[in-house]
Predict the structure.
Amino acid sequence: MKKVFKAIGKILLVILSLIILSLLGVFIYHRINLSKEASLFSNPPIGELVEVDGHKMNVYTYGEGEDTLVFLAGAFTTSPILDFKDFTDQIKDDYKIVIIEKYGYGFSDITDDDRTTDIMVDQDRKALTAAGIEGPYILCPHSFSGLEAIYWAQNYPEEVKAIVGLDMAVADSYKIDDYSEENVTKAVKGLKIYDVARNIGIVRLFANSSSYPDYLSDTETSYIKTIASRGYMNKTIQSEVSHINDDVTLVDKNPVPDVPTLLLISDGSGTTGERWIDSELDYASNLSNVKTVQLNCGHAVYHEKPEEVKNEMESFIDSLED
């Protein structure tokens, strides 16, 4: 029996050694590639780096038109520019398009600052100024960044011509048990595990092209893989998630900003379901100039119903000039 246990022990030791050697190999491979890819983040292939609060933030601007549309991505969007670009390409002939990659996302820096809504909006505004982009803006937030748009309109109403919510969050969207302090803390701990896996290089192994949308070119797909390998669920994103209840409190301090608003609402899938929909509709009831459009599609409405979203946006923006 002792011989059996001794043999099992040797087998386990060999297996453990192989795992350690494999992880070491993955780590070395990952570090070599990070070094090769560093130039992409100092000189992004798409967008312009501007200095904001001592770090570099990526801002992408293109298109023609009198109105400036500022697109704000939801949480966990690896590359906001490439996430929005398939849709914004369809409207670039009529509007000036701006896509901001907040710190922790895309080709922007990963930072240590607190990621509360007031700080993020302040940095968004500084980035636009540094890039020479003047307001007023039509803010186009998706999901979590809806809180940024609301705070922006509450505190700088002269800069916000309108809001086009792409199934955007409002404060009430997060007033449920799923977002209790206890559950948020658990979520952040989970993100830290992904962070460790990314630092080792495991994320790079699984960031294969089969998981990316068909509309991306091979080059664009390689950019997203590179971004994910360098920054997936990084400390900046963790900080953003950890402050979600602080953000709700911050936005709730002031009345709902009564700016012209178009809310393009999903069927609730990919969110908290009916609660998400009801929160947007309740928010709309506080506005004097608002249109709500309920779409029979998932959370990323601009991907799933691009033609309907485009038509509704154009009609709404045209109505602002009447």
